[in-house]
């Protein structure tokens, strides 16, 4: 892929090459990475890694992880490999449909599986013109299948964590509820007084704790957008600039 840009994440600690047009990673994968309670020596699999932003942010915050990723689009997978090399991360990237994982991955179990699935059900939305963006944003594989694959790849007591649009929360909870326990939801709202637009959802294999709905995390200060002025809250600035964790409350 020749038409690319290199963008700084975590205040320049990570430099990520991605397509100049098509799907470009924003703050969502950074927030997903920040929410993962991984520890040195554990293993992580990202489903649908794109150019690798989420898993590389996580690997930067928690040194000593064993990280792997699956990406359907070969051009994006190649960028993920290159980004890992440029940022000195050993990342095992597989070009595959998550519904047909290679044997090597089907023989492994992971402490954490993370995913930022396509947000839009194309039965109720319009397809993107760019094919790369459409594959990343338009749901072709059902959300239920994303959850099924994640659950199968987990170690006992391992965690699956998803970031998704708030309106898909019922679908996500239904899919996770039959396979995972100890479900938790952390809503992400753009500003105080606004409905959450995104949710972080975590489940644990063999978990038995009661469902928890946490207080929303507010991303921006003020009640409205004020031009091009940055308005992230102090918590969000620490996550996006310094790589601070976004912990689910105990």
UniProtKB/TrEMBL annotation:
Residues 31-124 form the Methyltransferase small domain. Gene3D superfamilies: Vaccinia Virus protein VP39. Pfam families: MTS. One of its GO terms (molecular function) is nucleic acid binding. InterPro entries: DNA_methylase_N6_adenine_CS, SAM-dependent_MTases_sf, Small_mtfrase_dom, tRNA_Adenine-N(6)_MTase. Keywords: Methyltransferase, S-adenosyl-L-methionine, Transferase. GO terms for biological process: methylation. This is Methyltransferase domain-containing protein.
């Amino acid at each position: 892929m020749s038409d690319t840009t290199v963008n700084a994440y975590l205040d320049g600690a990570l430099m990520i090459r991605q397509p100049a047009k098509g799907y470009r990673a924003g703050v969502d994968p950074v927030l997903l990475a920040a929410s993962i309670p991984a520890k040195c020596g554990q293993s992580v699999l990202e489903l649908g890694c794109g150019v690798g932003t989420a898993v590389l942010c996580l690997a930067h915050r928690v040194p000593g992880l064993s990280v792997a990723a699956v990406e359907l689009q070969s051009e994006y997978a190649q960028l993920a490999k290159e980004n890992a090399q440029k940022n000195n991360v050993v990342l095992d990237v597989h070009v595959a449909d998550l519904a047909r994982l290679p044997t090597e991955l089907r023989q492994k179990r992971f402490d954490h599986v993370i995913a930022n699935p396509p947000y839009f059900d194309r039965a109720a939305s319009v397809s993107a013109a760019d094919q790369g963006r459409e594959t990343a944003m338009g749901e072709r594989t059902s959300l239920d299948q994303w959850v099924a694959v994640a659950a199968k790849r987990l170690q006992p007591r391992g965690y699956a964590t998803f970031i998704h649009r708030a309106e898909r929360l019922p679908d996500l909870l239904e899919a996770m509820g039959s396979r995972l326990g100890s479900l938790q939801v952390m809503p992400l709202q753009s500003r105080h007084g606004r409905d959450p637009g995104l949710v972080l959802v975590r489940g644990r294999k063999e978990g038995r704790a009661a469902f928890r709905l946490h207080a929303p995390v507010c991303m921006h200060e003020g009640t409205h957008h004020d031009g091009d002025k940055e308005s992230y809250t102090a918590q969000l600035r620490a996550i996006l600039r310094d790589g601070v964790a976004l912990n689910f409350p105990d």
